[in-house]
Amino acid sequence: MTMDGQDPQMANDVLSGGQEIVLHVLTICSASLSVIGSSAIMFKILQEIAQNRSRFMTPYDRIILGLSTCDIMATITYAIDQFLLPSESGKWSVWTFGSPTTCQAVGFLTQLAPLWAIWYNCILSYYFLLRVLSQKKRIFFVQKYELWMHLSGLYFPITAIIGYFGNWYEVGSGCWISDPTIKWIVAGIPTLFTYLSLIFNNMVIYAVLRKSLRSSEPAQKRLMREATTLMFLYVGCFFVTISPQLVLHILEDFFDYTNNDYGNIYPLLVLSAMTMPLQGFFNVFIYIKPAYTRFRAADPNKSIYFVLRQALFNPKVPQLTFLGDQSAASAIAEGDAVNPNQALFNSNFRPNSSSTIPASSSDPCNTIAEGSNAA
8-287: which CATH number, 3.40.50.300, 3.30.1520.10, 1.20.1070.10, 3.30.465.60? Predict the structure, then answer.
């Protein structure tokens, strides 16, 4: 025993004040980056629509807007919950000045926003799957599936409200659902379903696109590869951000880890603090990747900063062109899509056939592909 009567082994397992501060600072920094990233996505989509009246919001835009909105709420929750926890909660003792009332608010927000953001990743994967499998026009997806996909997310505000009035959120290791059974029913099942859906859906998408690549034209192959890369980036970043926190919950609920054991898993806590709030930061680079590729092709000698700024804030995205590729007469030019993300997930869009890549990044690209029939 130490002089203060504390078991030395337990003293080593409990986080020090300095370690807690490191976790707090990492979480706040990551959350700030994520809010900036998700806000940039929302700004880009709304800016394109405001500046180009022929631009309309696609299902992909609406899903990404929903994901970004939930991510902003989730990352704000990550950043402030450490301050709103009661000091007697036993999880953190540094920078906490909350009360049982704020603990209930933290529990409500935790059940609402982060899980809703996770679910939108699931919706996004099913959107990609349906687009690849059906090869239908956008109106087919909108009429049959999209509304129900968005409405499925209401599960999380409903369970958050039920939990608030049902006293699910208690002061324990933190302010969230204290009953492990309820926690895994209302939160664990949707999260694991999202995990499995992302793995299964992307395996199917990869198999379908790989088969299509064998018989496609060079230009169409480029779009398919770009779309595949985009989908796998979304999945990879989701796993990176969510996995450490999921492992932490498994340790707490199935292996009896508590705040008294946090010293033993401090590296996992650091990894979780860095990655958990970062999804919006990763998503903004994934979302603008097609635009960045086209601005880079149009201005190969410009700096990375210049091209990145163009991809973020210039709604007039250049169109990729390919030497010697003759698109089918019924195909629509990629430039007609205005937003290059739209072209990636529609097999009817094809790049223009040309011997050069457009040099100006400021010219709007909305012409019909060479050789295409407007009728």
Answer: 1.20.1070.10
